[in-house]
Design brief:
alpha+beta, two-stranded antiparallel ribbon, elongated
Amino acid sequence: MKTFSTREVAPRLRIHHVTLARLVASGKLPVPKVFSAGNMTIHAWTEDDIKTARKLLPEIRKRPYKKRKQAKAKKKK
């Protein structure tokens, strides 16, 4: 089975590779298989891991603060 690095997966998910790494580190996305190479940690993403992340991203991207910004804009008017 072919594996992909975080930098290769991020464009497929239409997010920056740093954002993807932060989501994995914070536990919002499941951790793919991990390899160590010296002092580096490498995540090996499979097609199934990418599909799972693609399903979870819309829920993660919901921004509750949007309503607060709209309320502030109404107050200014």
